Amino acid sequence: MTRSLLIAASLLAADIGQLDVEVRAVDRAGADWIHVDVMDGRFVPEISFGPSVVRAVRKSTTLPVNVHLMIVEPERSLAAYADAGADHLLVQAEPGSTVHLHRVLSVIRELGKRPGVVIDPATPIAWITEVLHLVDIVLVMTVNPGFGGQAFLPEVLPKIAALREHCDARGLTPHIEVDGGEDAATAQRVTEAGADVMVAGNAVFGRPDYAAAIAAIRANAGSPI
Ligand code: DX5
Ligand code: ZN
User: Fold this and answer.
1) Which site in 4, 141, 144, 165 is 20 to 30 Å from 119, CA atoms measured?
2) Which ligand has an atom closest to residue 206 CA?
3) Which region, left, alpha or beta, applies to residue 65 given φ > 0 means left and ψ of -120 to 50 means alpha?
4) pLDDT per position as a tens digit, 102-127
């Protein structure tokens, strides 16, 4: 199947003092999704954005807002993020986040949003096989979550390939999104492994020309896969 690479620009690397300007700029520059990292100081050490930031982003763009919840007990705040205007709600698969993953993903669908499940580098595919039919997106972390600007972990590549193969064998077609340390140099490797969405923080917001940065990533993306 031919899949073109979608770019989800990660606001963690943006100038938050100018959130509206930054979101409009990456929208104009050709980003496909806006990625919002929610960190609660418990699942990961940092605290980042909450529903009010999602609400602000929603006002600045019509692009899908892709919300990555690095939090414990996401079930307590799904409705708040849905109400704030998130399009995609992605929850971590690890039991340190939620004990009832199947229920959480089902609730996201009931809220009218697109459910996604996230796996950390140490988390095997086996942890999500029983919920794959519930999700539109699998986000495979290519760094350990919690901070922007970390180095890409190439040892995750075989897991991406195995996940795509597993989905194909079952006739499932979720987006496979990769997150962490991604840039024009990793684009070919992750797309060849089977990813079709790339989160890019520093690789876009850290560059002077966002359109050129996005174009450089796309130019390196392998296609077809
Ligand atoms: C890390 C976050 C990422 C982060 C990626 O925990 O999930 O979305 O923004 O940043 P870069 O692309 O700069 O590695
Ligand atoms: Zn993220």
Assistant:
1) 4
2) 1
3) beta
4) 999 999 999 999 999 999 999 999 99
Decide if 196 is catalytic.
Answer: no
Contact indicator for 68, 179 with CB cutoff of 8 Å: yes
Domains of the chain from N-terminus onward: 6-221 (3.20.20.70)
Residue corresponding to tokens 């039991």: 95
Atom in ligand 1 nearest the alpha carbon of residue 35: 8
Q: Which ligand lies nearest to the CA atom of residue 207 in the structure?
A: 1
The tokens of 36 are what?
């919002």
Query: Which one, of 218, 220, 149, 134, lies nearest residue 179 by Cα?
Result: 149
Would the pLDDT of 1 be above 50? no
Contact 152, 143 (CB under 8 A): yes
CB atoms within 10 A of CB 123: 17
Is residue 24 pLDDT above 50, yes or no?
Answer: yes
Q: What is the rounded CA–CA span in Å between residue 147 and residue 168?
A: 32
- Ligand 1 atom, smallest distance to 12 CA: 9
Residue 98, both tokens: 């939620």
Is-catalytic flag, 83?
Answer: no
Active-site annotation holder among 32, 37, 183, 196 = 37
Ion ligand 2 residue ranges (Cβ < 5 Å):
37, 68, 179
